[in-house]
Amino acid sequence: MSVAAWLPDDPADRRSWEAALSELIREHRFTIAVVFPAVGAVSLIASAEGWLPEPLAFNPLFVLAGVIVMRSPLIVGVLPVVDRRAALGVGALAAYSYAIEIVGVTTGWPYGQFEYGVSLGPMLGGVPVALPVFFLPLVANAYLLCLLLLGTLADRALPRLLSVIALVLAMDVVLDPGAVALGFWTYGGGVFYGVPLSNYAGWVLSATVAVVVFDATFDRTALGARLEACEFALDDMVSFVLLWGGVNAVYGNWLPVLVAAVIGAGLLRTDRFDAGMLPWRAGR
After folding, report:
1. To pair with 46 at 20 to 30 A between CA atoms, which of 85, 141, 271, 283?
2. Concatenated DSSP letters of 38-96
3. Using one digit for the tens of pLDDT, what is the confidence trace for 98-117?
4. Domain residues of the chain, as ranges?
5. Which residues face 195 on adjacent strands?
6. Tens digit of pLDDT for each residue in 76-85?
């Protein structure tokens, strides 16, 4: 079934459930964006250190459920601008993520030889079935944040695309060392906290393809308007900074921690994370 076929035909029905989902996210912003990544970081570290018994340690369903909850602000934030063209783009990117990961696991290209050490949800052919849930939000989050930070410069294709590609790469500078420290996957060694430089060369390729497809299939004007109206659209990026910045700090990966802090500073510049995110200060 095409991804586009999932979209409701009745615009009124679609608007009603999008509004209901937005309100649900809005009412639970702090829990989703702060509590979930904090609990996730603690549970992942406890699993890696052998402090949690089976079947709690690295429970794949718990990991996947937690990721989906943390992704929910991004998904709900972007949904109103997902037309059929954008949905087909998401489907193409999902297929691309599977293809490049299967090639990577099988051949070692383009990231370098690696293998998964933990099941990130159900696995098929050595690749997580939910891989797009892990990969695509990196691109979407980077794109949205760059739209806000670049301002009118985002209207120019080259600065926009280069900035998003650079931010996706920066996010992997945070993600991969933390994931290796936890044992999510291993490269068998590497100069950057156990990660080989070939991984980042591969990410330049992956990020470039994904960002170009995202940029070509989503309506940038509609995305910008939605960003102005949706205060929680970047909350998933908050979760990313807290979870992976925290994991890297525990394992002494200080350069990734610094990069996470820089991304966090960029988020603060968007002026989205004020008292409205705190339930006890918002009168809830």
Report:
1. 141
2. HHHHHHHHHHHTT-S-TTTTT-HHHHHHHHHHHHHHHHHHHGGG--HHHHHHHHHHHHH
3. 999 999 999 999 999 999 99
4. 3-277
5. 192
6. 999 999 999 9
